[in-house]
Design goal:
Layout (H helix, E strand, L loop, with lengths): L9 E5 L3 H7 L4 E6 L2 H10 L6 E5 L5 H4 L4 E6 L5 H11 E9 L15 E8 L6 E8 L1
Parallel strand pairs: 1-2, 1-4, 2-3, 4-5
Antiparallel strand pairs: 5-7, 6-7
Length: 139
Amino acid sequence: LAAHLRAGMTVFEFGCGGSTLFFADRCKFVLAVEDRPKWCARVVAAAADRRNVMIVLKPRREHAAALSQPRDVILVDGAADRRPCFDRADALVAPGGMVILDDAWWPLGITSRRAKTVLHFPGVGPYRFRPSRTDIYLY
């Protein structure tokens, strides 16, 4: 993934965490929405020294609407409303960008209307007793 990122890229995340810090080190700007106050506070503290990160606490039902403009990279991760968040990402990802769907096995049936290529990365996820998968949609 790092090989596909460029310093001028903008990132939007549905759910913040380790990926927020990863993207902040490699991209121009990261905007994340999170619905869990304690987790949000932990990630905000971890990102305090990074001037290119903004994390906003919002209820889950407001996550999809929080993405209001095109971004180069959009991560759908912690969002409980994954389908509307993915659909919003699929509609607003910038040309040449990517949408990353973490835990792509849940819920079933998420597909892109616009992606040129989909890459599947199966593996073992943290705190999982079965395999997981991350899908990267290239536009």
